[in-house]
Amino acid sequence: MESTIKDGTDPDFVWQDYLEDTNSVSAPPTAFSSGFKVGMKLEVPNPEDSAMYWPASVIMTCGDLLTLRYLGYGDDRSADFWFNIKTGEFHPIGWCAFNSKKLKPPA
Fold first, then answer.
1. Is the C-alpha dihedral spanning 64, 52, 55, 14 positive or negative?
2. Gap between the Cα atoms of 106 and 50, Å rounded
3. Mean pLDDT across 18-40
4. Residues contacting 58, CB < 8 A, separation 6+
5. pLDDT for 36-71, tens place per residue?
6. What phi, psi does 42 have (nearest 5°)?
7. Is 98 helix (H, G, I), strand (E, B) or coil?
């Protein structure tokens, strides 16, 4: 039985692995524009506790979708996740401190 989340996506799917396995290349970043750039940092809700936040770095952009990696994961892409900027909550770095919100790293 395949593992999927409620929205039908496979939680173990890794875009880079898919490209390598299918001998494919992704569309160039210039084909899509959201204003976000690779390396930018955001504060996003912690998946275990939405009242807590943790910084994440933009790894890849694709229109309204970003691939994010929580800070502290280095080059480990195993916990990278897709993030829709139109439906997800995100804030600039420093927002939590300014709004007295707590930062907690994801487990």
1. negative
2. 11
3. 82
4. 36, 37, 38, 39, 40, 41, 42, 66, 67, 68
5. 889 999 999 998 898 999 999 999 988 889 999 999
6. -135, 160
7. helix
| Spatial CB neighbours of 66, under 8 Å, sequence gap ≥ 6 | 34, 36, 58, 59, 60, 82, 83, 85
pLDDT at position 106, please?
87
The pair of three-digit structure tokens given for residue 104, joined into one six-digit string:
């907690």
* Residue 87 confidence (pLDDT): 80
The amino acid present at 30, given as its one-letter code, is T
Q: Are 28 and 38 a contacting pair, CB within 8 Å? A: no
41 CB neighbour count, 10 Å cutoff: 13
